[in-house]
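Form 12-C: Joint structure prediction
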Amino acid sequence: MDKWPSSNRYSLKAALMINYNPVIPSLCLPFLDLLIEIMSIKEKWLSAWCIKPVGGALVRQEPEYILLALMGSPLKKIMLCSSEKEIFNVEEQVMVQHSVIINNMIEDGSYNHEESKIPLDCVDSKTLKKVIDYCTHHTHHQNDNQEDLEAWDAQFLNVDSNGLYDLLMAANYLEIRNLLDLIYGTIKNMIKGKKIDEIRRIFNIKDHGFTSEEEEQNRKEYPHFY
Amino acid sequence: MRRGPIHDDDHHHDAAVARKGRVVTPTGGWPELIRCTTTTPPPSRLPPILLDELIEEILLRIPARSLVRLRDRICSSWRTLISSSQFAKQHLRRSTTVDPTLTHPLIAYFSIGYAYPTIGVFSVPSPVENPPHEPTKVVPYKGRRPRSIIDSCNGLLCLYNVERDDEGLHHGAMLWNPCIGSTSQPVEIGGPFSVSGFGYDHVNDKYKLFGRVYKKSGEYVSRIITFGPNITWRTIEDFSCSMPSPHGTFSLVSSVGIFVNGTGTLNWIFHDCFRYVVVRSLDLVKETYNQFPLPDRDLDDDCFMSPLLCILRGCLAACYENKRTHWTVWLMKEYGVPQSWTKLVVIPHHPLLVNPSAGFPLQPIYIFKNNVLLAKAPNHKFVLLNLNDGSIDFPNIDSSNDGMPKLHPLSKGLTSRTFRLYHESLVSPSHLGLQSCSSEMRLVKPSL
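Section 2 - Result
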């Protein structure tokens, strides 16, 4: 562990002991060394022991990388490239937690942190920024209460129709399950209780594909639906 | 942003990216989504194209009754999607596992005494939704009157129908989905049923009807009828209506077996007059019988009255009357595991509910999320029991238009009627490969 100054290892141990009470008493110091060694190989195992310095005190926060946080080095980032060739630097953990596609790419090992950027040709910069916003907020505020998160989501989706559509396509492309569910729910609520003509307008259905007799018959029989 | 269908892996630089990109033919265009904003989209943008699969995801989140309204009216591609068997199955799955608001429970009933050609249907009165004193109206579905409703499963009601023609009597079963309005042709069952049950074989994806048929020869035969483009009959080991018990004989209590979804089983209670009860089940998949015990009864219980089985929260449930002072509702949390019988609730007797002369049990029907139980009380009225605070409410159900004038109103009691609970779904008999029935046999709702 040559990248690890020894002072940090001791502060890590101290930090773990202070904050992670349920676990630490059962761990002897010697085992902590082994644990840290293992951690450096598979950083993902850290998620259970994530603590981050916040205003001087060490606060349990997940899933930040504890090693990196204590070392003071920046969190591991990845580069996403929008269709307009703009590069976005995002915390790897944030994107990996939300996007199945990005998670697969990283796990696959095909992504080289130093050089590669992930091209997202289907997502423009404005939308990509919003998506990153969503993922980052939901990662950092995982432990917030439900109402606060919902309020934030509602505010987040306060966009125009094209923006919503772009978000939906991006979420679908990147396979971000919770964002997709959120958008589907919003669209479902938009069409709730609306009349047929309005729904057609919402989905921009210009050609309904029915014969004119069928259409006329429907309108005559159920005028209040239209 | 490049507009167009999602392009495939060729355009990616990185190797081995598992993409779910199936190239989908676009439907119509999309948005001018309603939103209170004054921004207008820049004119240089091309109309966006919405993928079929995304529309499907949105529609899967809409309740069945709204989808029925939209199905034939928005556009032909929506109609094809919503009418498809695949969509119906996914919607059903979502409504049972993810989002119960996608469906609603309703009650269908028919008259026993008078042969009215009507089946009355009303929404299970919800303690939350309806304003307290506005009555729930019964909607009469009129058509050729089936002899009875056997049972319901996944939104399909199985109707027993008798027709006479030159050759004699024909006993048939029809499948009806009131929500979407499809009815299948009667399927010959071979004779009247003395014992019956209707359920779904989840292993083979088939709906099956079980019946103990009384043949013309005077013999009984137990048969499983599988619905499909080719109806099949399978004779199985005969269902015996009585069995030896520790002190005598167990006899069958109710002729219709209760279907437990996800297990493929029909279940009947057998009762002996000394308080022993046992459940006999038929596995529609394996076509074998099994039996398992119910919770023991206390020595001073009213043992002449047998508990009835029902389904609550997806589990098999039984309601016992104890010591003439209260009822206990038991839930079998894990089907087939007798140790998993758990007490759901103890309901004390209430003067408004008990009918001392009648000797009828309390029959639970449906339990809401907020722990309000809809039941049929011993005095034959529908009652809403709040299990949290013990309050009782008799829902106001207006049956004046149900097409059964000689029966006294539902709110006075359920006598002379048999009812079945069902949930709305989009499953159509045509998905099972069944033909639609002729127009004079269809059960039709009055138009609004």
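Section 3 - Comments
The first helix of chain B runs from residue 52 to 59. The mean pLDDT of chain B is 83.
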